[in-house]
Amino acid sequence: MAAPTIKLNNGQNMPLVGFGLWKVNNDTCADQVYNAIKTGYRLFDGACDYGNEVEAGQGVKRAIDEGLVKREDLFIVSKLWNSFHDKDKVMPICKKQLGDWGLDYFDLYIIHFPIALKYVDPSVRYPPGFFYEGDKIVLSKASLEETYHAMEECYEQGLIKSLGISNYVGSLVLDVERYAKHLPQTLQIEHHPYLVQQDLIDLCRSRGIAVTAYSSFGPSSFLELDMKRARDTPLLLEHPTIKSIADKHSKTPAQVLLRWSTQRGIAVIPKSNNQDRLAQNLDVCSFELAKDEVESISGLDKDLRFNSPTNYGIDIPIFA
Q1: What structural domains does the chain harbor?
Q2: DSSP label at 121?
Q3: Which residues face 7 on adjacent strands?
Q4: Is 34 noted as a catalytic residue in this protein?
C-alpha cells in the first residue's frame, strides 16, 4: 500500500499521506519509522524541535540497509527551529540536522514558525526550545526575509530539494511572495474541522503552494500535553457527525477526518503507535466522501486553534 502523490510547484512529487514524528518517543522512534516504512509510508515529517531526528534516521537507515526502500523512494521533511533564523545559522543547522538523520539532503525543509529567537549553540542545549535561559524569551533581530533567503541558499546548493513555510497566516504568505526567488513549495498549518482556514487554503492554491495539515484530529493531539483548551473541547473522533459518516462508509472516525483533508488535496501527517491504525491512516484515499458529507464536516468550524504559543504560556501571539 502506498499513498498517492501531489506535484509541487518545482516538479517534485510529495506523498499525500505521511507519518508525523511530533511527540514520538526517542526509545521507540527508530522502530516506529522502520515499521511505518514496512507498512508503506514514504513521507516522514520531522523537526529539530521534536528531538528525535537521530532515532528517526536510524529507522530509515535500517529500512534502506535491509533493501525495503531506496533513499529516493522516501520523502524526508525537517524544519528550521526559531533559534536558527539568523542568516549565518540556517545552513549550518540544516547540515547538522542532515547529519543527525544520516542524509545528504532533505526532500523538504520548512521554517517551523514565523518567530526569530536568539541563537542558542547546539553544544549548549539541543533542541533549544522557546526559552533562551530559564523562562526567558529573547527575540532575534532576523527578519523573515533574511531567513527565507538563507533557506533559498540551502535549496540552491542541493541540501534541500523543496522549501516550505509553516504556521504562516495569509498576510505572511503574501509577503513572502514579494521577496522570494523561489516561491515556497508547501505551507504546513494546523487544520481540522474546528479550524478549517479555507481562505488561507484558497490563497495557497491560487499561488500553487501545496498545503499540509497537522493535528488532523484536533483536540486529541493536545490532550497528552494537558492543554486546558483541548480538555474543554469535544473530541472530533467522538463527534456524532464524524461517527455517523464513518459508520456509513465502514471506516473509522480517524479515516474520515483524514479523508476530509486528502479528498480536498491537502496532505496529512498522522502518527500512531498501533500497527492496525498505522495501516488505516495510510488507507485514506480509497473511498470518497459525498459533497454534503464534506460540507457537513467543514461546517463544524469554530476557528479554534490549539497549536499557538500563547496556549503553552508563551507570550508570542503570532495568530493575534
Answers
A1: 13-184 (3.20.20.100)
A2: -
A3: 13
A4: no
Among 34, 41, 50, 214, the active-site one is 50
Specify the pTM. Answer: 0.97
Nearest Cα to Cα of residue 289 among 312, 261, 318 = 261
For the record, the C-alpha cell of 30 comes out as 527508530
Cis peptide before 128 (omega within 30 of 0): no
Q: What is the pLDDT of residue 284?
A: 93
Residue 2: the pLDDT is: 73
Residue ranges in 137-290 assigned as alpha helix (H): 144-156, 170-179, 198-207, 228-231, 240-249, 253-262, 275-282
Task: Say if CB 164 and CB 110 are below 8 A apart.
Answer: yes
Q: Which residue positions in the chain have pLDDT lower than 50?
A: none
Quote the cell numbers at residue 240. 456524532
The candidate with the shortest Cα–Cα distance to 214, out of 159, 170, 271, 173, is 271
CA pair distance 72, 107, nearest whole angstrom: 9
Average pLDDT, the chain: 97
Closest CA to 84 of 168, 162, 160, 146: 146
pLDDT value for 1: 64
Cα–Cα distance measured from residue 196 to residue 174, given in angstroms and rounded to the nearest whole number = 19
